[in-house]
Please model this.
Amino acid sequence: MTTTAGTSALGQLRSGTGAVSRARQRARIPADVSLILIGACFVLPLLWLVFASLDASAGHEARLPGRVSLDNFAAIMTPGLLFQPLWNSMVLSAGTAAVNLVAAVLAAYPLSRYQSRFNKPFMYTVLFGTCLPITAIMVPVYGLFVQLQLLDSMPATIFFMATTTLPMAIWMTKNFMDAVPVSLEEAAWVDGASGLTALRTIVLPLMRQGLGVVFIFVFIQAWGNFFVPFVLLLSEARQPAAVSIFSFFGQHGAVAYGQLAAFSILYSVPVLALYVIVAKGAGSSFALSGAVKG
Amino acid sequence: MAVSLRRDRSGHRRRHSGLRRQARLIPVLPAVVLLLVFLAGPVLWAFHASFTNAALTGRNARSPGWIGFDNYARLLSDPMLPLSLGLTVLFVGGSAILGQNLLGLTLAVLMRRARRTVAAVVGTAVVAAWVLPEIVAAFAAYAYFSRDGTLNQLLGGLGLGQTDWLYSFPMVAILLANIWRGTAFSMLVYRAALNDIPGEVTEAALMDGARGWQRLAFITIPMIRGSIATNLMLITLQTLAVFTLIWVMTAGGPANASTTLPVLAYLEAFKFGDIGYGTAVASVLILIGVVFGAAYVRLLRESKP
Model:
């Protein structure tokens, strides 16, 4: 039976539905087992994060804490260590997402609604912009910020971070806007409404969900960004959690792995929650298709 | 249609219509200004600064002098360049093109055959590593590969020898960490692509007696080759830019054994204080990115006339 699983499955496929489902169940077992094995490999590195955060005497090894305690969380719940950096991350990410959304919506509207010789080259330039390795331009950006005396400035950092995600945001916003039918606006145009009025009153409400996806997408990227604020924001009072967690690692990491893990978890929760919202609300393939398809 | 409607109404003012059509593009301006100032600006400035002796501190920080091709001459004779280029190629080829790409495809194919709940749970585990902030993922990978970390615990449990991965095999640790971190993207792309294959095609092949691997090689893969090309380009560009993971795990060490180009540019500019030379290294990286980016745009343009 098992040796000819392939052909017998085929035979049963032709003979009857009950047999088919049984054969399919059997064919599924190898796929299930391999998937579970691969999945386990992906979970393993995360185990340490969870175990160590609950273990007051944690090291590098993943072990079940002898006594589950929230001491690590209590130790880092101070304004200087946790709340100020998280607030900075919040300002940085929300600011970046807001700048992105305004600039992307404004840019996407004419590109989506009016034919122009300018559209295609612009969209391909934008697409090209999504490809630039941002890490590569951080050294020149630092040089530029020194010359313009913008180093350690929150607004300048927000505008720079917004620009790094702007190409992707424009691309996604235009795709979402293209999906809103033009016919409704045409009626408004005939009634004498200007393009921007039609945008505000008709198009934007209809693409709420898409705008939410763009906002969250940019927010998650900005929240997790380490390198840009690491290079551009120097004073501790302005550094977001991504950077302060790294300095914490440098200063106390060798002695306080449990606290490092607890800090990491608290810092990760907001983006995990936002990702779940996008994935549940819109389907992750939907969000991805907005980003990837042409 | 609406456009022609409007133009008919204002037919007598045709002289202005060109001007009006230009005016419609005004909302694009904020985005254009941002892109010019913060993206095009630094790229151009990079090529300029790579011809100067700009420094992090001191006299040359305020008024860098023009030194022509000196930085590039130094770069070409620097033994770090071939080493760093080689490590970057190894990193991108091993972790993105082979690792993430093949594992992502494998996962997507397996998920179509496996039970729905198993696929969902494993999918969540794979995506979790990808959604986490990069610094947290880097810490987790660091702990996993460190001397008394989880990997050595497992190897010890199996009765195998333990090594200090981050010191003895830094590139292996970084490659595996980046596969762990990034496979979710390829998996999502391939799941979407496989869902687009019409069911009749697979059924027809099944009826003709094609075995699993035959269907994969002769039907599935040719049908999703567009997605494969797109995915390869995007993960190559993403992996080229990886800095945080390497910086936290090994900081380019030991003895430069894991110094990829982004790490080299950072070290030269900020550790050794030579912004001009660091920018020259960054310019090489930007050029590689430009080549791949242009290839990607061309690919999309050809697939979509």
